[in-house]
Amino acid sequence: MPSAPPVAERLTPWYEGARRDLPWRAPGFGAWGVLVSEFMLQQTPVARVIPRLEAWLERWPTPKALAADPPAEAVRQWANLGYPRRALWLHRAAVEIRDRHAGEVPRDVDALLALTGIGDYTARAVAAFAYGDRHPVVDTNTRRVIARAVHGLAQPGAPSRRDLDDMEALLPPDDAGAAVMNAAAMELGAVICTARSPRCGECPVRDLCAWVRAGSPETPDVRRRQARYEGSDRQARGAVLRALREAGSLPHEAVIPDWPDALQRDRAILSLLDDGLVDSEDGVLHLPR
Asked: Which pLDDT belongs to residue 144?
């Protein structure tokens, strides 16, 4: 059997000794738990996810349990995690898992990709981490590690299929080793090879890193910047949802009536209606039923 690539030979033992103790890494955590955690972790810090994840799985330990409740309960339970469309998508995915897969999270990547809200990363993460299958798994942290260690760039470019090819080249040939290597690359990007202040002196692959060998040049950062939250439409959307979670239902004019920008408030309500996160009946707004 071919040996593991040099980066994996260094990174895997480092990960085994340095990895954080996170719920979804516990033995037997299960495919549903992994799926829920991946939905929640999208653009959300780990520290905010852990208590919400535990509460979610306590209330809905299976896809069937979530599918049996109305989508409004998923949106309400999502609370302040942000990007609440994820809650609606997760509920729809649970219904699809119940109806198409007898309540069991599928193992096949194509079947996972056919579920609402699941893209390349989440599908491969579930297949690799929950089922132990060999797939390249690439998140933001992994892309940064690859950009530096393989391509000698300070920051990754726009996401592309090349990311999966690059990660595939770093994976050991065996399923178990590949799953560990996927997790190790993410962990390295999260705690050592960070975006702003990489701790290169502590990196287990420092002497293999193309960026370090090149003198750590400041190459252009082409990543799209996230708009400021304060005063944004996202903030207004969050305020509308918070009001409806607390009240249950409200007349249109009674939803955050003191919001400083009335046009922005109305725009937020319309966008939530378009997304299916809010329903309206006779001028009264409520969460989806």
From this structure: 95
Is residue 257 within 8 Å of residue 247, measured between CB atoms?
no
pTM above 0.70, yes or no: yes
281 class by beta-carbon count within 10 Å (0-12 exposed, 13-18 middle, 19+ buried): exposed
For residue 221, pLDDT beyond 80: no
Handedness of CA 201, 206, 209, 210 (dihedral sign): positive
Specify the number of domains making up the chain: 2
- The Cα 198–Cα 200 span in angstroms is 6
What does 12-34 look like in DSSP terms, one character per residue?
HHHHHHH----GGGSTT--HHHH
* Contact call for residues 117 and 89 (beta carbons, < 8 A): yes
Domain containing residue 37? 21-130
Helix (H, G, I), strand (E, B) or coil at 279: strand
Name the domain boundary from 80, 101, 130. 130
Active site residue 38: yes
Count CB neighbours of 189 within 10 A: 23
Output the average pLDDT for the chain.
Answer: 91
Catalytic residue among 38, 73, 96, 187: 38
